[in-house]
Inverse folding.
């Protein structure tokens, strides 16, 4: 018997949660989910691969592992986890955690991710996850999204000013990327349906052709690759550095907030029942996916907050349309030759897609803070402001000061995202606890 019998009366739903749409509709909807997911997965995976200093073949293998974890987590969420039409992909929060602790080595990062994910899965299995929602107030959620965008700023800078372009072409690459961002945002604003969803994918393809055609870099040579094949699934050992583990536990606190918020908003939108059970199972699956990702040296999954918007756009609440998409993602993971094409995308184009994604993350943060059209309270605004300022200051502390920190606490005190999140939680739940202030009306 379907778990959800009730559908929202405020939203027209053509295909209910627990039913398969007609085959033709299923194919179209699966393609729409796919074109939304693939650009972000490939770009975020490429960012981390470049940060690790991987060569082209190693980056392809990294993306294969990333796609395999994503496909498995997506199928698990649909069949056993939250059972909602929620798209799963690599968590940007964990990318920030990886980049901030990358100097500790791949084994330490993988071990910390596995531990943080294991604790997350435990929170889901014990029922603690659903009760953690009280921690994630709008100021904390807004701070988390803004901190993610802020923490990726150095990475976006290095992509937009890529050394591969040569000193004389650096400014040209930046201006091209900025123009591409504006074009993609305009296209997403003007286009509807599948075309709007495909903007980032088209931006990568057409932007790369235009970049090379303008002579900003020489045309690359594609060396091809195997038609089918699995990567080395467990390429690294695990080390357990206390400071890195604490940093990733805090990152997983932010991941849980993302998971719970997406489950709540999607479930409320379509009138789903048993939301507590869905929340716990969803967090448990994300945790188990993170454990697998840690063992594979990859990135843990989370359900994306874009999911409710896709439901509204397609008028389909069927979770089963995401199963063919998961199969397509798994098939892509087994096609290293196809993935190697992505290594031809120039850095400024990758950076432009990442900037576009982060611009939408900032929009989501502001939407949370101004939910219902209300002005934020002074305490809420101060929480977000102080968290963001702390994150910026910590992210740009002098290297000498960073190195002077004890190696055990360096991954925490020198991590802008972690310190910003700690400040947001302290202000919201300790210093400003129970404080009722009227909305701020002036500066």
């Amino acid at each position: 018997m379907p778990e959800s019998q009730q559908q929202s009366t405020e939203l027209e739903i053509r295909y209910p949660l627990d039913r398969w749409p007609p085959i033709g509709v299923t194919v179209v909807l699966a393609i729409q989910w796919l074109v939304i997911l693939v650009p972000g997965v490939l770009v975020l995976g490429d960012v981390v691969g470049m940060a690790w200093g991987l060569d082209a073949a190693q980056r392809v293998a990294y993306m294969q592992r990333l796609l395999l974890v994503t496909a498995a987590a997506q199928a698990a969420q649909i069949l056993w986890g939250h059972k909602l039409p929620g798209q799963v992909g690599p968590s940007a929060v964990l990318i920030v955690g990886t980049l901030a602790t990358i100097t500790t080595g791949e084994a330490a990062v993988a071990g910390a991710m596995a531990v943080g994910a294991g604790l997350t899965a435990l929170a889901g299995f014990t029922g603690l996850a659903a009760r953690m929602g009280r921690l994630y107030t709008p100021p904390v959620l807004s701070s988390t999204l803004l901190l993610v965008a802020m923490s990726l700023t150095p990475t976006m800078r290095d992509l937009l000013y890529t050394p591969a372009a040569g000193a004389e072409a650096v400014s040209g690459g930046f201006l091209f990327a900025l123009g591409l961002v504006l074009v993609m945002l305009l296209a997403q604003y003007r286009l509807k349906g599948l075309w709007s969803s495909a903007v980032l994918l088209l931006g990568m393809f057409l932007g790369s052709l235009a970049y090379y055609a303008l002579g900003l870099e020489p045309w690359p040579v594609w060396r091809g690759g195997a038609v089918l094949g699995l990567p080395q699934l467990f390429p690294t050992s695990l080390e357990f550095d206390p400071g890195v583990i604490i940093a990733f536990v805090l990152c997983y606190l932010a991941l849980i907030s993302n998971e719970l918020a997406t489950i709540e908003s999607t479930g409320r939108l379509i009138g789903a029942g048993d939301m507590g059970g869905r929340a716990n199972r969803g967090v448990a699956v994300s945790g188990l996916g993170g454990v697998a990702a840690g063992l594979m040296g990859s990135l843990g999954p989370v359900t994306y907050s874009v999911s409710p918007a896709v439901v509204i756009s397609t008028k389909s609440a069927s979770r089963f349309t995401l199963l063919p998409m998961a199969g397509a993602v798994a098939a892509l993971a087994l096609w290293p030759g196809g993935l190697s094409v992505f290594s031809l995308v120039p850095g400024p184009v990758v950076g432009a897609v990442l900037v576009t994604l982060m611009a939408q993350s900032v929009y989501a943060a502001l939407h949370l803070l101004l939910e219902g059209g209300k002005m934020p309270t002074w305490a809420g605004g101060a929480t977000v402001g102080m968290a963001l300022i702390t994150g910026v200051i910590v992210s740009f502390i002098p290297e000498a000061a960073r190195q002077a920190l004890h190696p055990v606490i360096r991954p925490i005190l020198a991590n802008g995202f972690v310190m910003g999140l700690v400040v947001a939680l302290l202000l919201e739940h300790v210093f400003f606890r129970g404080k009722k202030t009227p909305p701020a009306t002036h500066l």
The chain is about 65% helix and 0% strand.
